[in-house]
Input
Amino acid sequence: MVEPTSGQVVEQLRVGLVGGGPWATSIHAPGLTEHPGTRLAAVWTRRPEVARELAEPYAATPCASFAELLDQVDAVAFAVPPRAQAELAVRAARAGKHLILEKPVAADVAGAEELAAAVDEADVVALVVLTLRFGLRTREWLVGLAEAGGWRGASARWLSGALLGEKYGNSAWRQEDGALADIGPHVLDLLDAALGEITEVLAAHRSPDDLWHLMLGHAGGATSTASMSLRLPVRPTVVEFAVYGERGFRALAGRSEPAEAYTALVDDFAAMVASGTRTHPCDIRRGLHLQRLLAQAAHLAAR
Output
């Protein structure tokens, strides 16, 4: 947790929301409105009617252009496909706006590198919405693992039918890029945090129906495996992580409540802006690291 300097008056950040899909409406908009450190000030989407509909309940301004949104805010939260996010977020960073970024942060490594460079040059805060990491149970689990040490391996399973349903079934980028791009960042991030930095994707396989299997090498010689799918008729969704080694076996099952995790993220985001802090376990450097791992996995699976 990042906290403002003692005695510092923390004013509400004016945040602009880019995007009007399910995640924007169910998580970003209410989360930014209900948090004491932020207010939803403006909304922009490529369809003006969607922006108006989303902005109205929150008394936010629907903007006719991205440039108009930038003129009215201190920070921008994105809920758009990776390629669009990377392009727009670079513009926002260069305009001095702090960023809340969805994962993956870009469509490819080059886009992620350009965005990371823009964030560093502009000296703005940029946090990635890795909801698993911001959940209280996950944080406590990771603290326990770090205290115990001696872990030699780990496994992860995230099996869902999300792309078979209506909520995300019409998401073109998710349908095209599949489970690796959508839930892969969550899985890779948590395995990395639990077992040590992932230094190499040792093997990757993608079935015709988008079932992914990965083998990962970690710093210090540990290894892990991951299985992921968004096209399996599994209810409820299976989300399981486990580590094993000298201290036995420790598991973490289930997802963090998205709204609760988002509130924790905004806690850190607002505190970082107020205190001038720029580094965080889930900052843009983390997003770039994960982007490189995604690219390695995709390359191996395509061979």
Residues 3-9 have pLDDT under 50 and may be disordered. Residues 2 and 189 are 20 Å apart (CA to CA).
